[in-house]
Amino acid sequence: MAAQPKEINLVVEELRKLVGDRVTTAKGVLDQHGQDVFSTKCVPPDAVVFVESTEEVAEIVKICNRHYVPLIPFGTGTALEGHFMAINGGISLDMSRMNKILRVSPEDMDVTVQAGVTRKQLNEFIKDDGLFFPIDPGADASIGGMSSTRASGTNAVRYGTMRENVLSLTVVLPDGRIIRTARRARKSSAGYDITKLFVGAEGTLGVITEVTLRLHGIPEAISAAICSFETLKGAVDTVIQTIQMGIPMARIELLDEVQVDSVNKYSKLGLPAKPLLMLEFHGTEAGVKEQVETFKMIAEENGGSDFDWKIRPEDRNELWKARHEAAFANLAYRPGCMAYTADVCVPISRLTDCIVETKKDIQESWLTAPMIGHVGDGNFHVSFLIMMDDPKELAEAKRLNARLVSRAIQMDGTCSGEHGIGINKKPYLAEEHGETVDVMRMIKKCFDPHNIMNPGKIFDL
To answer: Which of residues 217, 252, 285 is at a domain's end?
Structure first.
């Protein structure tokens, strides 16, 4: 149910008394907080409030709860599945001013930050301690947003996702209570794992205001590389064999020949127009050298060639910058298009089958659809480059995506490896989880009986 204008006006009035001019109803700001980074659809909130402390968030939540007005947490706006579209109206809670790094413990290799701190800001702050935070979704997302969507990215094959790297959270519950979900100990058997419940909840159970994270030491040696293949199957088989042999890859990214062409044109590279793996190895000098040689042997057996190793930091940074700009490269590849993006993940043993069958579907269609993926953990994306105002193209993209999702789920995979559910993937959640979705609804109702926390996301009540 949408928020009523009378209640919205009462809430905005109370919020202005609480935080003054940090509440706005300016159209430009509202539109910014109601639209995904690549979406043409905008569903703005009724007001935006810029918060500065956990205690302030708690007071705002109490006001919204009292008036049954929806509240949508907002980080940096880089989500992809409609996570912060205000489909029921309400208040957007902008966390960007909660950007303080509260504590760093180099000896414990952990840190506590406010939710608005971004990953690049954090890594710049801790690098002089010889530490880094490895979760790298590409965009300079906020730590709170990354926790809420259970983000991962290019380093996940070695360092895990946000699920493995969040130690504790400070959360404001829908009734305004402030809880801390865990202590800083690296393991605990004390009660329910409430931390993991909020990691990936997409703001539907409460507002994350502080995050304690696991950190990692900056490796002694880092080597990056590219390797081309004659066939997509050869590239994917190389990934599977590399993982099965236990080579501790830091990054292993797949680009099909269409994605390579897109990246070449956008980032002014001269990569061979073939299926390509982008790689990175972390460790000691001797360890990295051994990993490189073992990988090269596996790749050559699967038709790999055109090896190009990158050791200098500036060369590695150029390579990964091009990888992270792939989404923008795709938008430029077909001017005027939007990217309708798939995000599946399957067990590594089924990865070749899933990718090869998906590629066959694309080749039998008329759509342009580059493929890219964090294939070291079985996660890949297809970007259907379509004109959103063309119903035929949109219908074809939805058809191909539905086939891909069903294929992944039948292989015991998931409809979303890292982007979350939001609005866009709700139809697939029941196909994947069945009656478990009812359990999710029970948890939601228990935490949020008035359904004010980012309502309409993940599933409907």
So the answer is: 217
